[in-house]
Design brief:
Blueprint: E1 6-19, E2 24-34, E3 41-47, E4 49-54, H1 59-71, E5 77-84, H2 93-102, E6 111-119, E7 133-137, H3 150-164, H4 181-192, H5 198-206, E8 211-217, E9 227-231, H6 233-239
Parallel strand pairs: 1-6
Antiparallel strand pairs: 1-2, 1-4, 2-3, 2-7, 5-6, 8-9
């Protein structure tokens, strides 16, 4: 069995976003520490999904490893968006207590590289069974307690995502292969924190030749079945010189 040695002062943190057709979500790990003698809860908050890199892997490999262990999926959208090396990243009393408790030999100063990951969370079964991992609505994060500087990292990731969806078609990574225009509109509204006029939105989408209408329609819905569409990466790559803005 291969025994990997961690790099004590370098980690990766993945900010994993998902969309459930109604709201934008982020994947967080519940962190709890109790006093072994009294049972008193000493720490109760949340972390991003991440870990230290091993000495025999690069940053991207480490990030893909974490996602693979968590979701069991390959070929997910994953991209570096920032590095974080503030002097006080792990210096708070509760975080020092946590690091002492887990006793993994981490350094007193840790630099982490942030990765943005996008997943269709309606199709993902979480694999990290030894930890309590859950999807949380993005708009709830502001009121949540988080470990280290993970809330700051989260908001930097959200900012990067909102910028990128305006100029690149990465929003489609959050959808299944087939989707309706109503689902697509809800996604953009959730991503950008805005509301769009239905007619204007659909007019804009009709100009995106890489959003292709299908002959398939929804089944088993309590309303008039909507037509399905798909995003064609091939068409996008062929026509991106003439692409229009994703600012809808």
């Amino acid at each position: 069995m291969i025994s990997h040695k961690i790099v004590p002062n370098v980690s990766v943190d993945c900010v994993i976003f998902g969309f459930d057709f109604e709201k934008l979500n982020v994947l967080l790990v519940d962190r709890e520490l109790k006093d072994e003698r009294t049972g008193k809860v000493l720490i109760s908050d949340h972390t991003l999904t991440g870990y230290h890199i091993y000495d025999d892997e690069d940053l991207d490999t480490a990030a893909y490893r974490i996602l693979k262990e968590l979701t069991g999926l390959d070929n997910l959208f994953l991209e570096q968006f920032a590095a974080f090396g503030q002097l006080d990243r792990v210096s708070s009393e509760k975080d020092q207590l946590w690091l002492k408790h887990i006793n993994k030999g981490f350094a007193d100063r840790i630099i982490t590289v942030g990765y943005l990951a996008l997943i269709d969370n309606t199709q993902v079964t979480l694999k990290l069974s030894e930890k309590n991992v859950q999807w949380y609505p993005v708009n709830e994060v502001k009121n949540m307690e988080m470990a280290f500087d993970h809330k700051y990292i989260f908001y930097k990731a959200l900012e990067a995502l909102q910028k990128k969806v305006k100029v690149e078609p990465i929003a489609f990574e959050l959808l299944p292969d087939y989707f309706t225009l109503s689902q697509l509109q809800k996604l953009y509204e959730a991503l950008l924190g805005a509301s769009f006029d239905k007619r204007n939105f659909r007019k804009k989408i009709s100009q995106m030749h890489y959003v292709i209408p299908l002959k398939k329609k929804q089944k088993g819905v309590p309303h008039k079945p909507a037509q399905y569409y798909l995003f064609s990466r091939e068409v996008y790559e062929k026509t991106k010189k003439n692409r229009i803005s994703f600012i809808v």
